[in-house]
Each structure stands twice: as C-alpha cells, then as structure tokens.
Amino acid sequence: MRRRVWLTMQILIQTLIDGLLMGGIYGIASVGLSIIFGTIKIVNFAHGEWIMVGMYATYFVWSFTGGIDPFVGLIITIPIMFFFGLIVFFLTIRPILYGKGNDSAFIFSTVGTSLLLQNLALLFCSANYLAIKTPYTGKAFQLLGISVSVPRIYACITAVALSFVLTLFLSKSYLGKAIRAAAQDRDTATLMGIKHEKVFIITMGIGAITAGVAGTALMPFFYVFPTVGVSFSLISFVVAIIGGLGNLKGAFICGLILGVTEALGTHYIASDAGLLVAFALLIVVLIFRPQGLWPQSTMRRGG
Amino acid sequence: MFITLRHQITKKEIIALLLVGLFVLSLPGWIDPYIQNVFIMIFIYGALGSAWNLIGGYGGQTSLGHAAFFGIGAYAPAILVVKFGLSPWLGLFVGIICSVILSLAIGAICFRLRGHYFAIATMILLEVTRLLCLRERWLTGGGVGLSIPYKGNSLYWFQFDAKGAYFYASLVILLLVLFVNYKVSVSKIGYLLKAIGQNEDAAEVIGVDSANVKRNILVLSAALTSVCGTFWVQYMYFIDPDMAFSGAFSIEIALVAIIGGMGTVFGPLFGALLLRPMVEITSSLLGDSFAGVHLILYSVILLLVVIFRPSGIFSYLSDWYKKFKLKNV
Lengths: 303, 329
Hints:
By secondary structure, chain A is mainly alpha-helical.
C-alpha cells in the first residue's frame, strides 16, 4: 500500500518536473513574442517559424562545425538570429509601420512571413526530420527514483538564464530603459529623444534571439522539420494571452504553468490530450478573465 | 465598382455582363475536364474568400480559423453518408447548424477581444477542432479521414458522373455568396460593419452594438463557409482532419480575399481568379517535389500587396474602370 502511494507520488513528481522543464522553453518562446508585442504593438504570427529558423540554424552550425556543442554554437547562432530579426523587420514590418496599412496589415504581413518561412524551409531543407547528436542526448540522471533528462535540464537552465539576462538588460541598461519607455508610450518617448525606430530594431533583434535560443535549447532532445513552429506558435500565443500580452514576467510564469498543464494532461487524460487541456485552460481564462492574468503592465518594472 | 456606380449601370455594361455570363455558362460544354476542375476551384475559393470577406473584410475582424467551419461543413455530410447512410442534403443543413453553433460560441468567447486577440483566438479554436476531430475516431475516422462511397449518378446523393454538374453547383454557391456580399454591402449591417472596421470605439460611442453586429455577420460567414465545405467533400469524395481543419487552408481562404481586395464584392473572386491558375501552373510545371512553391508565391504576393496596395489588386482594376468610364461618358 505504502509502496503504491510512493509510486503514484513519484509519477506525479516526474510529470511535474517534465512539465516544468518543457515549460521553461515555452516561457522563453513567449517572452520573445511578448517583448515584440509590448514594444512594437504587433503580434508576431511567425514566432513559431522564428523558432524553427533557430532550430535549423543550430542544426547547420552543428553540422558545418563538425559537431560543436549547440550551446557553445550559440556564439554563432545568436548573431545569425539577430540579423535574421533585422531582415524581417526591414522587409516586412517597417514598410507597414510607415506606410498606409492599419492594425490588421501587421497580422497579414506576419502570417505571410510565417507561410513564407515554412515553405522556404520545405524547399531548401526538405520535409525530413533532422536531429543533432550530442554526448548528453538521451541521457538522464536518477534522483530518488525520478529520472531527469539532461538535455532538458540544460534547456531549462538556458531559458531561465536568458530571461534573467533579459530582465537585467531591460531594467539596468540605457537601451533597455529606452525599450521600456517606448513600450509604455511611443510618442512621449520620441519627444524625450529616444529614436523609436532604433528601439524597434533592437527589439526585433532581441525577439529573434530569444526564438533562436529556444530553438537551440530544443535541438538536443527534439528534431526539426518545416512545420515544427506551428505548435510552438500556438503555445506561445496561449501563454501570451493567459499571461497578458506584453508582460514578460507573466509570459515566463505562464510558460511554466502551461508546460505543467500539458504534461499533466498528457499523462493523466490521454497521450494526445496535452494540448487540448492547455487550450481548455486558455478558453477558461478567456471567459473569466479576457485581459489575462497579469494585464496592463507593459514592462513597467523591467519584467 | 458596381457598388459605387450601381445607379448608373449602362446598357453596354448589362450586355457585357450577359455575354460574360453566357460564356461562363457555356464553358462545361467545350472545355476539357481538367480546366473545368480549375474553374471549380476558382469558384469555391472565390466563394470561401467572399464568405471570409464578410467578417474579415467588411467587419475588419481577421479570422485565421475559418477552416473550422469549412471542416464542419465537410464532415457533417461525410459522417451522415458513411455512418448513417443519409443524404448529403441533410448533411448540408446539419453542417450549417453545427457551424452556426460553433460560430456563436466563438463569438461569445472572442468578441470581447479585439484585433490581434481575435485572430489568435480563432487560430487556436481551429486547432482545438482539429485535435478533437483527430481524437474522436469513432465519429470522424481520426487521421485516416472519411471516404464517401460512390452511390451512382444521382441528385439525392449529390454525386454526378459529369464534371459539368459540379461546375454549375459551384457556380451557384459562388453566386449565392456574392449575392449575400452585395446585400450586406448595401444594407444597414454593412454600414455598421464598415463603421466598426474603421474605428470600433467611435462606432460604439455613436450607438453601434458592435458585439451583436459582429456576431451576426460571423454566423452568416460561418454558414456560407460550411456550404462550401459540403460541396468540397461531395466533389472530392474524401476528407481528413489535416485538410479540413488546417491552419494553412484558413490562411489560404483569407489570402484570396486580402490579395483580391477586402471589403469589396468582387475582390475575393478576383483574388481566386488570380491565385488558383497560378497554383495549377506551378504544380504542373514543378510537380509534387516542390509542394510548397505556390505557397511561397502566395506569401510573397501577400507581402507585396500588404505593403504596396493594402486595398487589394482588384482596386487597380476598379480604379482603371472608373477612369475609363469617366473618359467615355
């Protein structure tokens, strides 16, 4: 009897840990979505595809350097993703920002970007699943009968570290303060001498970097294919809506919550019900608290 | 152009319209089945785009989940025929009713949200319907999909040996959706929608019940989309969740309307007229090995249109026609 209770507990804790580790990645993905929404006021419908690009970048860096550790490879991946963000900004966002388009024009342009990236990946990288091999892929260590996957631990640590650095950057550095100022009130910030276009460029770059790091963190235990981003897009939307769009701390915490919810749903309801439970959570939140759990704080206190 | 100048339709225009109409009606008589298929696709995509246009164009509420209604419209007759042996005509109405119920639910949940939130919520609800459809294997056949058995050439089963019959059926659906678009564009609800689309806060201040108006138009749009889904499954004899509830298909529906011209009666049809032949040409030139090429073209065209001509490509034509008319009157 006692053994049985312990086993149930073990399974529960195992599920919670798995969920939390995955939740870290969801969190960092949603932080990228949230910072772009908070500052430029657009929802990046291509965010999942950015993560896909980050995963492909990680893969190619890994294969061209002959098997460098993906986390070391970040020194190459991060600049690539930053410039990727700039290119996307100059090609698809800036012309609309200063053009004739209205709010929904941004939806169309980011949706178009996501379709474009997906199919370019299909054209140039084929629909095959690609994975990288690291010394710790598939490794796990045992702790009181609970097995913890090593690459997932690395992924979660990376996600937490990145969001910590990001919070620090936003609250301490001059540029970070400028981003927060522009997020709160674009016009006033411009009057105070902040060049908002520069702020937008940096924000897009940061958003792309977070997507890239999420992709890198995923690669040691996941595989990449052209439509891998779709589910990540949906999850970061769910997270961002539950957390309140534009709130970084809310986004990260909700990422963790969602990871746990999904793991619990997958384990206790059905193996394919994980996402459904997450979406059910979203619908409940939309009905009872449509403004999200932490609304209206557009990066006020740097986080 | 027909909206703004509708009181001054000249005799010449009526004759031209009649000639175009007769030409289209005569098409199945002399073109080969492959080209007929292209026309059917144009009509159905035009109808889908126009149905999307009601909520997305006139109402300015970007829905990225319209495939949900399409999928329900396709699955309802498929399930009724395969599992219960009932006529697809019944399935048509069951599909419409289910789509209306779903659209009411979506409206209740999403219309408190605006702009980006609405787009995200519709996208997620589509994914919910897809996952449910994959899970409930006893009803929908799961990922395998449903194949409609061939019952012979009959109107009762809505199965025909001649492609021409499908051609005329899709034309009827297209004309129905265009008629609804036209009616909406000249009726009170159309003007209310345009007001909401331009500035929702201002519209509410002057007394427009925006949630109510948006819900009504979403219901209408959902019902028409569902009809297209029913036609689709009867024409293809097959449906599976990845087709019926796909996000990419939702985006394609919206693309047709956006590229053609949102908020106009003929814009979405024009978009389908441009895009569908392009799909056929790329797929016949490049074959299946480059499955995504037409979507690359789609998205590049979309980006160009959004950046350089947000009012859609059809507006080039209507502007040109207005000038032409002024010169000749």
